[in-house]
């Protein structure tokens, strides 16, 4: 005799289950939400570990794309620091007539210090100039044969900070040349201003290259996420059938894109550091020729945060675009 099975309780549809979940206390909903995010974050990292070759290639391409503009930015910042140090040198070197002695030079320097456009004036005597010339090296034999010091007294004229405009400096130089004690003058800051213009150009180039390569990172991450969506197509269909929301479907891919961005940004930081170590040897050799010990500075804390943050943001945007395109094609919205 066949017994009739008792009716089984039917499972509520997804929308009804979602409504019940929303009736949970706020703290419970927050705990469930955080737990799911932690689980998705861990699972997305595990998926990258399961495919080390493909993941490593993607991360490396992202790192190289970000390291190039970052390295150009670091080099421009080091040049800016170097120019800042050089700006401490005299803006105008006023060479006095050979007939002028030290006392007359000191008197003239006192007069120039009263000019409103001049910040300070330093007197470089003949003996000091000869000692500096001897320190340059390579002229010892010639200097030993000279019985009389042929170098003139030099006044190192430092203009006020608001007098750094090239036209103002040229006007000041012309006024100095009108002095009866002056022989000739040399401008020391014009080439620094040209170098500053080159540094500004380097920054613009770094920005343009960074923008173009940033678009490349978006395409790389988007294409990688699109391939992963294709591989998990069946899983996504099942989630859609049980009533998963677009945000639920999108979440693991967003975390994957964020992992790509984080790892790519970290590797880019390492590549910039390695490149600076390689360049530093040549910079030290060049600086030694000028009796200097200039050392390159790497990405600071703020620049590192911007690099990694921008990398993560690019990874999120690229994955968002890829998943959104898939959801539009499947008419999820």
Automatic annotation (TrEMBL):
Keywords: Cell cycle, Cell division, Cell inner membrane, Cell membrane, Membrane, Transmembrane, Transmembrane helix
TM region positions: 53-75, 197-222, 258-279, 299-323
Topology class, membrane: Multi-pass membrane protein
Compartment(s): Cell inner membrane
Main subcellular localisation: membrane
Superkingdom: Bacteria
Keyword RNA-binding: no
GO cellular component terms, semicolon-separated: cell division site; plasma membrane
Residue ranges of every copy of the ABC3 transporter permease C-terminal domain listed in the record: 210-328
Keyword Cell division listed: yes
Disordered: annotated span: 1-20
Residues of the FtsX extracellular domain: 91-176
Swiss-Prot/TrEMBL GO biological process terms: cell division
Protein family membership: Belongs to the ABC-4 integral membrane protein family. FtsX subfamily.
Subunit structure: Forms a membrane-associated complex with FtsE.
PANTHER family xrefs: CELL DIVISION PROTEIN FTSX
Job description of the protein: Part of the ABC transporter FtsEX involved in cellular division.
Name recorded for this polypeptide: Cell division protein FtsX
Organism (species): Caldichromatium japonicum
Species lineage: Bacteria, Pseudomonadati, Pseudomonadota, Gammaproteobacteria, Chromatiales
């Amino acid at each position: 005799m066949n017994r009739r099975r008792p009716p089984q309780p039917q499972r509520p549809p997804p929308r009804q289950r979602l409504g019940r979940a929303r009736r949970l206390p706020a703290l419970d909903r927050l705990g469930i939400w955080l737990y799911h995010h932690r689980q998705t974050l861990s699972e997305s990292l595990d998926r990258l570990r399961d495919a080390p070759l493909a993941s490593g290639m993607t991360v490396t391409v992202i790192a190289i794309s970000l390291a190039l503009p970052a390295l150009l930015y670091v080099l421009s910042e080091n040049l800016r620091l170097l120019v800042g140090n050089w700006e401490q040198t005299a803006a105008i070197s006023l060479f006095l007539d050979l007939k002028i002695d030290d006392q007359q030079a000191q008197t003239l320097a006192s007069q120039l210090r009263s000019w409103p456009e001049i910040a300070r004036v330093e007197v470089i005597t003949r003996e000091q100039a000869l000692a500096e010339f001897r320190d340059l090296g390579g002229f010892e034999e010639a200097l030993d044969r000279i019985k009389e010091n042929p170098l003139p007294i030099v006044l190192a004229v430092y203009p006020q900070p608001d007098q750094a405009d090239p036209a103002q400096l040229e006007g000041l130089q012309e006024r100095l040349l009108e002095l009866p004690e002056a022989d000739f003058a040399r401008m020391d800051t014009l080439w620094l201003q040209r170098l500053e213009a080159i540094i500004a150009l380097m920054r613009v180039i770094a920005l343009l290259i960074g923008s173009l390569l940033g678009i490349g990172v978006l395409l790389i991450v988007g294409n990688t996420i699109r391939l992963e969506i294709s591989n998990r197509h069946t899983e996504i269909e099942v989630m859609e059938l049980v009533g998963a929301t677009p945000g639920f479907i999108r979440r693991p891919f967003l975390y994957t894109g964020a992992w790509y961005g984080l790892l790519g940004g970290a590797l880019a930081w390492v590549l910039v550091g390695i490149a600076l170590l390689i360049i530093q040897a040549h910079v030290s050799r060049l600086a030694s020729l000028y009796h200097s010990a200039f050392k390159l500075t790497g990405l600071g804390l703020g620049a590192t945060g911007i690099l990694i943050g921008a990398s993560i943001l690019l990874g999120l945007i690229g994955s968002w675009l890829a998943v959104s395109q898939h959801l539009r094609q499947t008419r999820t919205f």
